[in-house]
Amino acid sequence: MIRALLFAQLAERAGTGALTLPPAPTPGALLAARPELSFLKPAGARVAVNRAWSHWDAPLADGDEVAFLPPTTAL
Q: What's the predicted TM-score (pTM) here?
């Protein structure tokens, strides 16, 4: 299983800050399998895999942790 974490307004919109999802090959594929989370990618969310910044097409393995974080701005 994949542990998915959502932060700030992304968690508010999803109604939860954490989900356990079936394994998928990439973070993008996680979203494709869950239409109710499709808002994450177009919203410009950033993705981290196992606590390291990553990409939407990064490979995932069973047991990984994927975090979806809202876009930020630099001052």
A: 0.88
